[in-house]
Amino acid sequence: MANSKYEYVKKFEVDDKLPPHNWIVLRIDGCHFHRFSADHMFEKPNDENALNLMNICAVTMLEHFPDIVFAYGVTFILKETTEFYQRRASKILSLGVSYFTSVYVMKWKDFFPHKELREPPPFDGLKVICCYPRAKIVRDYLAWRQVDCHINNQYNTCFWMLVKSGKTEREAQESLKGTLAKDKNELLFQQFSVNYDKLPAMFRKGSCVYVDKVEETVKLDDSGNPVKRVRKKVTVGHFDIIGPKFWNEHPYILEEE
């Protein structure tokens, strides 16, 4: 279009370049995913295979896009100095969602070998956030997401236990209306002998995906002694990211320039 009379149309393009020196948060979300999970008969309240499929998609995202330094579930943190696609929000959003969705489809059979993928998985980019100029704010954002994970999982665990015990969904909702966390814990233990704190950490805490530094044996020397090197490896774990322990042990993840 250069040097043509039509070049003026470029003036109407929207500049969506995100400001520099801000951590970028890309949050992918399922669009009408309740229907998708019902159509594919996912286990309620948590389908371990479905969650592990999401985890491997997140791992692949970190392996493919090195500027992503951390993921919590399907929330991805890009380092503050990234120049990925010139920090253009639309490019980051569209490429992130399309790649994640493609991996989900390709990896489906690895986790559901006897279940056909009946329809395309509906993911969208819920938002790109660029207003986090400090790592402390990113940590607070991730803490908020983990608190939300706990609240939702505790409620859903109670809800589906009640439904499976014979209550209708409306009756289960009424039973849980106005209950506090301690009430839900007591309900699970008294009625179903379930200790909430003993449920798998992946359900209660969510999944963290990050690049870990691990020591691996690369060869043996002439004397037969192992020669070790520190290498980077994308790792999935289920940790408390609200407190300081995880971040103190992995300070390089949100290291500020």
From TrEMBL:
Entries under Pfam families matching the protein: Thg1, Thg1C
One of the GO BP terms on file: tRNA modification
Domain Thg1 C-terminal span(s) in chain numbering: 137-242
Cofactor(s) needed for function: Mg(2+)
Residues involved in GTP binding: D29, G30, C31, H32, F33, H34
Binding site for Mg(2+) 2: D29
Positions contributing to Mg(2+) 1 binding: D29, G30
InterPro entries: Thg1_C_dom, tRNAHis_GuaTrfase_cat, tRNAHis_GuaTrfase_Thg1, tRNAHis_GuaTrfase_Thg1_sf
Keywords for this protein: GTP-binding, Magnesium, Metal-binding, Nucleotide-binding, Nucleotidyltransferase, Nucleus, Transferase, tRNA processing
Subcellular location: Nucleus
Group of enzyme by EC: transferase
GO molecular function list: GTP binding; magnesium ion binding; tRNA guanylyltransferase activity
EC number: 2.7.7.79
Residues covered by the tRNAHis guanylyltransferase catalytic domain: 6-128
Recorded catalytic activity of this chain's protein: a 5'-end ribonucleotide-tRNA(His) + GTP + ATP + H2O = a 5'-end phospho-guanosine-ribonucleotide-tRNA(His) + AMP + 2 diphosphate + H(+)
Cofactor binding comment, as recorded: Binds 2 magnesium ions per subunit.
GO cellular component, one term: nucleoplasm
Family statement: Belongs to the tRNA(His) guanylyltransferase family.
Function: Adds a GMP to the 5'-end of tRNA(His) after transcription and RNase P cleavage.
Name under which the protein is recorded: tRNA(His) guanylyltransferase
Organism: Dioscorea zingiberensis
